[in-house]
Amino acid sequence: MVNKRKGYFMLAVLWLAYVTFAMNWVAGSSLTPQITKTFFSGPVYPVVSELVNYSITTARVFANILAAIILMRLGAKKAVGVGVGLLIMGLIAIWMPNYWAYTIARMVMAIGGSMVIVYMNPVVSRYISDPKEKLKINAANTVSYNIGAFIVAVLFTLFAHQMVTDWRLTLTCFASITLILFLAWVWKAEDFTTADDAGPDGESYGYRDALKDSFLWRYGIAFASFLTLYVLSLVSFKKVFDEYTILNGSITNLLISGFAILGTFAGIYFGNKGLPRKPILFLAGIGMVSSFTFTLIFANSLPILSYIFVSISGFCMFLQYPIFLNLPHELKGMTPK
């Protein structure tokens, strides 16, 4: 018997865990000048200041494969416990003695964050059966990062001075939430396994099968292309806008994440209309890339126009995100594995 109420609780913990991860990542990125100033006596090369972001992105690539293996071997409760537990490294990283130890601890935090987003799918697959409800919940999961980024953007826009005065205190406030979520998961989560789940023909499906699956290659490349611009726009471009343009990086982050939330609702609407997926993803992708291109073109001449285009880009990003994330669930014979 599937306890749907417990399933909603588990999804809520996963959702909040990923929101917290986003807050830690975006806030840490925004506080990079203050962080490097603490660990180094003088100016540092740009590549050093961006090292944390590069390492987090790299860690997330490997974390996805690691997450699936751990899930199949340990079951949901222990696997998610590992993922949320690794997020606690974001709290430990703050008090590391040097920048390199700080970077490694943040990488471990990123592995935990990537594991959490992977674990949302099998939990949805197990506890939610209605297709329209699945799309809504997957949409909520996709927007979790933006909620975290949006909260941080608002705080850094309205309370800029307070946020940068003591970076350790700021990050500690965000990272401490992870401890509460870890305890909540251990206390109430239900265990289930995906190890015995087979495909529609009764045969098992492993990584060797996945590598031969042409759909997964097309899907993976398309999704990766979307995520590349999404991550760059919220993490790396903030400092680029602040340093090289007349745009305010905090405002661009606020607009991207805010309009992305609106785009998510649009994605739910179009997704539940039963329309073909490929044209929606194709048009949204063109809109996302072209509008961000115009953002860069007008960044030093017409800032208002740039802000409009960056808002459109954020909207188009998340018009496609819930459809992307729900697409595997719409395939015939999908199982949690």
From TrEMBL:
InterPro entries tied to this protein: MFS (IPR011701), MFS_trans_sf (IPR036259)
Domain of life: Bacteria
Topological relation to the membrane, as annotated: Multi-pass membrane protein
Position of the signal peptide: none
This protein's record includes keyword Cytoplasm: no
TM annotation in the entry: 52-72, 79-97, 103-122, 143-161, 167-187, 216-237, 249-268, 280-298, 304-327
Compartmental location: Cell membrane
Entry-linked SUPFAM superfamilies: MFS general substrate transporter
Keyword Transmembrane helix: yes
Gene Ontology molecular function, alphabetical: transmembrane transporter activity
One Gene Ontology cellular component: plasma membrane
Keywords: Membrane, Transmembrane, Transmembrane helix
Protein name, entry field: Major facilitator superfamily MFS_1
